[in-house]
Design goal:
21% of the residues are buried. The strands form two sheets. Strands 1, 2, 3, 4, 5, 6, 7, 8 and 9 form a nine-stranded antiparallel β-sheet that branches. A four-stranded antiparallel β-sheet has the order 10-11-12-13, with no helix packed on it. The C terminus is likely disordered. With 215 residues, the protein is α+β, with helices and mostly antiparallel strands. The chain has two domains: 142 residues, no CATH class; 62 residues, no CATH class. A hairpin with a 2-residue loop joins strand 7 and strand 8.
């Protein structure tokens, strides 16, 4: 009995634990780590680009990434080995199939007309997988749930009623322009860091500090 337990303990130490569930594959490139991130952070994950076609586009051996307002919102990736299905193609870049794509003669796709692909904390449109499953193109639209940002009027009413002060999870990592649309204009500017509202501080790169002070 003691001998068997000792053997089992030794086996657990020698054989590494794999976090990937049975039937799932390790992604070739986990794009969820770079979606909507600043260029400086993307380069830390992907490494320096092999070419810079423009200020808003970096080339790599496997494809390219595109930026809007300094944040990655587009990635084209060629697989090391072809996928065999839509689900596997998504898994190769760290995504999960949560809805059925539209199928055309040359590709499977999600877009603003057919509906976005929502998974892994993102809402993605212009997701295209060629019918030969050789690669994938993904457009990051916004963080999942960001389209449900509350209006300033609703924020004020719910604060007054004591139901909620502010749901800052719906504004995290959003641009200053989007946050201002939700909260209204700030009470004062705080250059160069950003702007101060009555209960939230917004930096030039998005929501950075929550104070949530009652009036």
């Amino acid at each position: 009995m003691l001998f068997n337990r000792a053997i089992r303990a030794l086996w657990l130490l020698v054989v590494p634990f794999s976090p990937v569930a049975k039937g799932q594959q390790q992604p070739e490139l986990d794009i969820t780590k770079v979606g909507l991130r600043p260029r400086s952070e993307v380069i830390k994950v992907l490494g320096p680009p092999s070419s810079v076609a423009a200020e808003d586009q970096d080339g790599y051996a496997w494809g390219f990434v595109g930026y809007t307002n300094g944040r990655l919102d587009q990635i084209d990736y060629q697989f090391k080995a072809r996928a065999t299905s839509v689900g596997q193609a998504l898994e190769k870049v760290g995504l999960t199939q949560t809805s059925t794509p539209h199928q055309g003669p040359l590709s499977y796709y999600w877009n603003s007309s057919t509906g976005p692909l929502v998974c892994c904390g993102f809402e993605m449109d212009n997701v295209v997988i060629p019918s030969d499953f050789s690669g994938i193109s993904v457009g990051f639209k916004q963080l999942a749930g960001a389209s449900n940002l509350m209006s300033p009027t609703k924020v004020h009413k719910e604060r007054s009623a004591g139901e909620i002060e502010i749901d800052f999870t719906k504004m995290a990592l959003q641009t200053r322009a989007r946050v201002t649309q939700t909260l209204g204009p700030p009470k004062r500017e705080q250059k160069p860091e950003g702007a101060v509202f009555r209960y939230i501080t917004v930096s030039t790169s998005g929501v950075s500090r929550i104070t949530s002070k009652a009036d």
